[in-house]
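Re: that backbone. Tokens:
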């Protein structure tokens, strides 16, 4: 009887041991798969960190389409930018509107998803730059950063877009902000003029591609100035500085909402004008209407 129990106990322990040894390979395979998966994830994260390290942070300013040299004249006056975030989002100004969307970067590869954009309308030259820029983004497949320069290439390796880090001037000329899109371009696109007015004392200023006509003190003073090339201040203001026959004029346009003190009419821009040292403030708008609302 004792012998039978001894044999039974021996066989039970032996089978249990064999069962444990058979489970071991399966556990080892699972551990290997987990380790491999973790390794792949670590490599992907390393690729992601490497790719975005140079892109993320600064504002990149478009300076060229492809190999065009230097850049289109219109692009010199239109601001096109790209800012990359660590959350794989890209955003910026596409010339007239603001845009945003997703991007994917892997070491030297770069692809953009579909972009969302505001729906503001600007003169034809600005819109053509914007449409071309957003269209080219869809063709981008790789990139290269050299010093302060970012080059984007298509699938065939052709250079399509060149940016410079930190914005700044394009070929020594300061580019236009979104404010300029509705004011500077108003004098050269399909919008015929920019007009502004103020009260106490009443004044009117009309900017066309050739002249700035100023009427001061309810029309008692009338001076016509040549229209200069406008400058863009760091704040985004559009600034006209000009002189004529011993008179001086500085007209500053800010893209901030304004309400006329007399009529209560709203305007999209605030205007500060200084004529012969005297400064006045008022409102303005681009378009085919006079500042007082009558048809031009």
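Recovered sequence:
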């Amino acid at each position: 009887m004792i012998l039978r129990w001894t044999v039974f106990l021996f066989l039970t322990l032996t089978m249990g041991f064999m069962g444990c040894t058979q489970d071991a390979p399966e556990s080892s395979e699972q551990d290997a798969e987990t380790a491999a998966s973790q390794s792949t994830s670590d490599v992907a994260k390393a690729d992601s960190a490497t790719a975005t390290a140079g892109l993320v942070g600064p504002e990149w300013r478009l300076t060229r389409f492809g190999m065009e040299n230097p850049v289109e004249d219109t692009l010199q006056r239109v601001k096109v930018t790209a800012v990359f975030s660590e959350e794989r989002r890209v955003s910026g100004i596409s010339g007239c509107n603001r845009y945003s969307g997703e991007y994917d970067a892997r070491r030297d590869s770069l692809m953009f998803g579909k972009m969302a954009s505001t729906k503001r309308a600007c003169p034809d030259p600005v819109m053509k730059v914007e449409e071309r820029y957003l269209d080219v983004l869809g063709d981008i497949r790789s990139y290269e950063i050299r010093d302060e320069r970012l080059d984007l290439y298509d699938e065939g390796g052709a250079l399509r877009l060149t940016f410079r880090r930190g914005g700044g001037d394009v070929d020594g000329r300061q580019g236009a902000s979104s404010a300029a899109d509705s004011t500077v371009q108003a004098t050269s696109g399909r919008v015929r003029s920019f007009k502004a007015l103020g009260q106490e004392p009443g004044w009117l200023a009309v900017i066309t591609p050739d002249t700035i006509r100023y009427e001061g003190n309810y029309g008692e003073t009338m001076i016509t100035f040549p229209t200069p090339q406008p400058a863009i201040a760091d704040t985004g203001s559009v600034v006209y500085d000009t002189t004529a026959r011993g008179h001086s004029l500085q007209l500053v346009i800010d893209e901030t909402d304004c309400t006329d003190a007399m009529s209560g009419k709203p305007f999209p821009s605030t205007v500060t004008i200084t004529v012969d040292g005297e400064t006045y403030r008022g409102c303005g708008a681009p378009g085919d209407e006079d500042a007082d609302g009558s048809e031009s």
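The chain has two domains: 55-175, 179-287. The chain has a mean pLDDT of 76.
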